[in-house]
Amino acid sequence: MADGQAEGGGFGPLAQVGYIWPGRSGMVTVSAVIPTFDRAAMVSEAVASVLSQRGADLELVVVDDGSTDDTPAVLAGISDSRLRLAATSNRGVAAARNLGASMARGRYVAFLDSDDTWLPGKIERQLAYMADTGQAVSQTQEIWMRGGRRVNPRRVHLKKDGDFFRQALRLCLVSPSSVMIERDYLRQVGGFDEGLAACEDYDLWLRMLLRGPIGLLDEALTVRRGGRPDQLSARFVGMDLFRIKSLAKILATEKMSPWHRDCMEEELVCKARIYANGCCKRGRVDEAARVWKLARQSLRDPDVPAHGA
């Protein structure tokens, strides 16, 4: 198989790969995937937290998504036979994760953002949890850090266990950095939507929850660091716009029960009304009309009024 190609597909083409280091061959249980962009000051800590894991035959795939800083040099300076590197031309985090997953050789894929870290024992304990429960996908609790200090997440952000589809419609309740997924299951669901500039994780977890539960290892084994201007949540102020796009797309393309559709349509109408009303207050009437049209096209009753009773 030539560089720039991967077996299996399912996560998009590898045509824009700049370089791949093959790493070692042999059996792999877990493939960790780190997407990164301009994180020269942080990526080595994320990498170290993966390579220090014990209790599993592990490989690490790091995808540099077109960094303009010293990230490539930092990664090139790490010598470990378990490390595989790929570079792309700034296609976005969804495409970077999908590329890493397409290169994965393990039975399980575990994602980690390059500004986050895993605590010792994370992989070993999560593997044991999945073996005990038979879950195809699971997450762990997190430690939240902001500005170098530990903060307590709001109750609404605490991770859930099982079938929490309805709660997950409101906001993202699964952290990419804490999740572990059977590789074949990830391929079946379809990976991250590369058409979404943000909320691509929200979109994937909803599609998974349509198919079954997401397990929770109720231990804080992932460190999530936030509060910096380079994060997607800081770059995109109107995050609900991407959730609206996700909900409309899922309603139009996914099979689901009447109950799931009722819940999704209710949330879509709610989000679209709030977003459109905000646009109108700021004089962005055309944008409000576009958002409401997008939402309405996915509803069974397209005549739902833009304003509630």
TrEMBL record:
Phylogenetic placement of the source organism: Bacteria, Pseudomonadati, Thermodesulfobacteriota, Desulfovibrionia, Desulfovibrionales
GO molecular function, one term: transferase activity
Protein name: Glycosyltransferase family 2 protein
Highest rank taxon of the organism: Bacteria
Pfam family, one: Glycos_transf_2
Protein's UniProt keywords contain Magnesium: no
Keyword Transcription tagged: no
PANTHER family linked: GLYCOSYLTRANSFERASE, GLYCOSYLTRANSFERASE 2-LIKE DOMAIN-CONTAINING PROTEIN
Domain Glycosyltransferase 2-like: 31-188
Keywords for this protein: Transferase
